[in-house]
Amino acid sequence: MPIISIANLSKTYASGFSALKGVSLSIERGEIFALLGPNGAGKSTLINIVCGIVTPSGGRVTVDGHDIAGDYRAARKAIGLVPQELTTDAFETVWNTVSFSRGLFGLKPDPGHIERVLRSLSLWDKRSSRLMTLSGGMKRRVLIAKALSHEPRVLFLDEPTAGVDVELRQDMWQLVRDLRGQGVTVILTTHYIEEAEEMADRIGVIRGGEIILVEEKAALMNQLGRKRLILQMQAPLETIPASLDRFGLALAGEGRELVYTYDTKAERTGITGLLTALAEAGIRFSDLRTEQSSLEDIFVGLVRGEAA
């Protein structure tokens, strides 16, 4: 059974704006699921409904078998949320803040668990520091520690590395891997698409309040990816001969590279025809290489409504 089941979820605000339009989605236990979409696509609204912060207009959500409306306490207890905003009690210490978060869920104190969480986030040395003295990166680590304080089975990371340094980003993704290894399901939204490409097991793309695609990452890149054949010219080209127009070529590297983009799903790539046409046009190349389109290329194409 999926750990999160979302069925026909909708949200329309009083202004008439429809943020979600019949979203259905299942998230499997122990996976890292990346939710991608442009600003205003509905990512945060979807997360906030699942976490009980926003009330849906319609539909049903269960978390670990608990309905988020009918069995709110059990559903919410299964979830840890790391929000985008840095909202923390500035005058409290790191240790007290994280320990208090555990108590909010009715759990008994567990200093050993709190210590493990703080050490995993490089916060142990800061445990007695007041939050107001911490850097932005350290405050974000505290938000993650708070979300993990009650040992949730599901962790939501909403734009977790926005505006943080590279070191923290790398630490955070190691933590995500460790959590997945412990059986925690991780759902993240991110603008850093290379992170989703590196981390996610599956990827969902949301656009205009609707899920337009959910796919395993490897299958997504295989199905929607394109390849580029890059030919290194023996002599620079100023223009591409008209006889080659049908191939949709592009010049790069100050005329020293000729780039041919082709669909990996097509029965014929057209490469043989291209090489023949180049020979007929008297164009010689010294080397060639291929490049697979990145997840970012695919994502940009999807949100524009086209194949990447």
From TrEMBL:
CDD domains (alphabetical): ABC_DR_subfamily_A
Source species: Methylobacterium aerolatum
PANTHER family: ABC TRANSPORTER ATP-BINDING PROTEIN (PTHR42711:SF10)
A Pfam family per the record: ABC_tran
Keyword ATP-binding part of the UniProt annotation: yes
UniProt xrefs under Gene3D superfamilies: P-loop containing nucleotide triphosphate hydrolases
Entry's family note: Belongs to the ABC transporter superfamily.
Keywords on record: ATP-binding, Nucleotide-binding, Transport
Gene Ontology MF annotations: ATP binding
Domain ABC transporter residue range list: 4-233
Keyword Transport among UniProt keywords: yes
Name by which UniProt lists this protein: ABC-2 type transport system ATP-binding protein
